[in-house]
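hi! just following up on the protien thing from before. the input was this:
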Amino acid sequence: MSGSPTVRRRRIARELRNLRENAGMTLEQAARQLDMSRSNLSRIETAQIGIKPRDVRAALALYGVTGEDSEPLIEIARGAQQRGWWQNYADVLPSWFEFYVGLEAEAVQVSTYEAETVPGLLQTEAYARAVYRLTAGDDDVDRKVAARLRRQDLLRGESPAQFSAVLNEAVLLRAFGGVTVMREQLEYIAELAALPNVTIQVLPFSVGGHPAMTTPYVILSFPDPDDNSVVYLDNLTVGIALEEPDQVEGYETVHEKLCGIALDPAQSVLRIREAAGDMS
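and the predicted 3d structure came back as:
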C-alpha cells in the first residue's frame, strides 16, 4: 500500500472515476444517488479533495462493488486520512505545491530539468534561503527552508529514490545569494552526484537549442504500477500535474534526449567543480 496519503487519494479518485464510468453513470446521476453535489464528486474524482471511508463504501455499493471486493479500496481511503509530514507546513506551502510534495514523498524515480535554479532536492540551506527571499520575501523564510530541506530525505535513507537531474549551464553561473553561497551550493551538488542513486548532468550552452527550452519539469514515478507517473510543472502562482500517459511519455522522451546531449555524469561533475572554483 502507498505510504503517502496524497498518492492514496489519487488512487481512490482514479478507481472511483473508472468504476462510475464502467457502471454507465454520469457525474450528475452518481452524485444524486450519493447525496452530494456534482461539483463535490467531480473534485473527489480529480483528487482535489478527499473522501471518507464510509462514503467510499457507499460509492462502491452504488457501482456494484460490495463485500470483500470493496475492502482494499476502503483500506486505502483510511490511509488517505493520515497526515503526511508536509501537512505540518501547510501554513507556508501553497495548496498546489503541497499536493506536489505529497506525490514526491512517494516517488521512487524523480527526473527533472532546471533552466535557472538548482532543484529543491539539491539545494543547500543558504541557497534555499536566498531563493525564497528573492522570490517570496522574508515572511516565514525559516519554515519554508525547513520544509524544503525535509523533502531532501527522499534522496537518502534505506530506500532512496532514483534521481536524474539535467541542469542548464546557466544554473551553475547564476550566483544566488552571492559567490560564497553559490560556491558552497555547487560543491554540495558535486558531493550529491557521488551518491549511487543520484545522476546529475550539465547541459552546456554549446549544444544550442534543445527540446526543453520552453519549460522546466519534474517527472515522478511511483512504486505501485497502478499509480501512473506524473509530470509536474509550476510557476510562481500555480502548479499543474499532467497524468495522461501520452503527456507523460512525451516528457520522458524529452528527458532521454536531454540526457543524451548533456555532458555525461563524470564530465558534469568536473564542470560543476570548475564553476565552483570560478566563484571568487
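Residues 5-80 form a domain with the 434 Repressor (Amino-terminal Domain) fold (CATH 1.10.260.40).
The chain has a mean pLDDT of 94.
cheers
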